[in-house]
Amino acid sequence: MLSAIAAVMDFGDVFNIWLCPDLSEKNGLIEYLHRKLLMFEEVVSIQRLEVKFDSAPTLRHKQLYANGLMQVRVLVLISGGDAQANEVSLHGHPAMQTLRLISYNGARPISGGWNVETQENRYAHDMTGGIARATPLVPAAHNRITDPVEPVQVYEFWITSTRPGSLQIAAEITLGDEVVRSNGQSGGDSSVTLEAISPVKYPVSHFSLEKVSERVIDRFDAIHRYSLGLYADRRSIHLLDWTSTQVQKDDEYATLFFVSKNINDSHPGGRTFCGYMAPVYGASATIRGPKGFVGTPVNQQPGNLTVLSYLSPDYQSQRARDQVFELTVFDEFGTEHWLRIRPDFSERSFKLI
Fold it and tell me: What is the average pLDDT value for the chain, to the nearest integer?
């Protein structure tokens, strides 16, 4: 019996039994699992296997950008049936380990540039765009979104594509020796269709890098704050992340990407200046400046990235890092855009090129 019980145990069951100090209580838990096993033995069929989007029930077609990051949420609704044709929950049933999405035509696993994930990412899930997130997403413990006791269990999946094309998606589960699919071949007929289209790329003329504030530090030093944004299609398109092969991105502190070394002119802005990319999240950033750690506010505009410049009249001992900074920014849909930021030594500033 113990091996059969083990098949229906989840981590919580194991944890509770392991923690239980009282032998009678531990036996009670094992008895509960035995009853749970008997309940599963009463499941004789898959009564419902439905695939849908999380929007209007009649909507069966959605578009996404084929950039490998934009996700569309697909839900699978499933329930079992007992010998009396009552609808029962399959939560914890061994059959749930076999639940997966498949291609409607051919009942094959999802492939060919399409990918199925169980964790949501930060990018927009609809072609209308999304809200810029102020905090990181907390990973979900599982992809079940219903209470375990509900007869109909709902599971969410997140679909991406790396190349243009369309895919009709069904679901599959194995109960005992029976394979049940929602593609009309061995069960009901329920599916959704995704169409991946080429992502929209914007030229550098649609991006802006504007100085939005100046802040004096320690009487003579200063921090200048720049806002990096994207405006196209008559609206602001959020920029949510960035990466670069030239620097190691720091998610806690501002990332140094430029060091001017000492400039021999009479500019009132200082003898040296450094450039930083602020962390994506948070209302403030910490700079590892020439005089130690300095905290500063970042952009209050959701969906814009922040570039920081630290100006100082002091001589600088750091090694110069004065090349054009090349970076990739990710818009709200997860599409990549390649940008270059050039330092302007005479103005102690930065410009997009």
Answer: 88
Which residue is associated with the tokens 């030093």?
A: 221
Which stretch of DSSP H or E encloses residue 4? helix 2-8
Structural domains in the chain (count): 3
Helices (H) and strands (E) in the chain, counts: 3, 22
Q: List pLDDT tens digits, range 188-242.
A: 899 999 999 999 999 999 999 999 999 998 788 999 999 999 999 999 999 999 9
Give the residue-averaged pLDDT of 102-131: 94
> Does residue 55 share a domain with residue 183?
yes
What long-range pairs does 299-302 form, CB within 8 A, spacing at least 24? 299/212, 299/225, 299/227, 301/227, 301/229, 302/131, 302/132, 302/134, 302/238
The rounded radius of gyration (Å) of the Cα atoms in the chain is 28
Using the 3D structure, point to which of 181, 197, 213 is the last residue of a domain.
197
| Residue 2, domain extent | 1-40
Q: How many residues does the chain have?
A: 353
What pTM was computed for the model? 0.85
Q: Do 6 and 77 belong together in one domain? A: no
Residues 100 and 236 in one domain: no
99: closest CA among 184, 151, 187, 171? 171
The single-letter code of the amino acid at 58 is: T
Burial group, residue 203, by CB count within 10 angstroms (0-12, 13-18, 19+): exposed
Asked whether 329 and 241 are in contact (CB, 8 A), the reply is yes
313 near 216, Cβ under 8 Å? no
Which residue from 254, 262, 246 is spatially nearest to 224, judged by alpha carbons? Answer: 254
Tokens of 63: 């578009």
DSSP annotation of 110 reads: S
41-97 pLDDT, tens digit each: 578 799 999 999 987 878 999 999 999 999 999 999 999 999 888 999 999 899 999
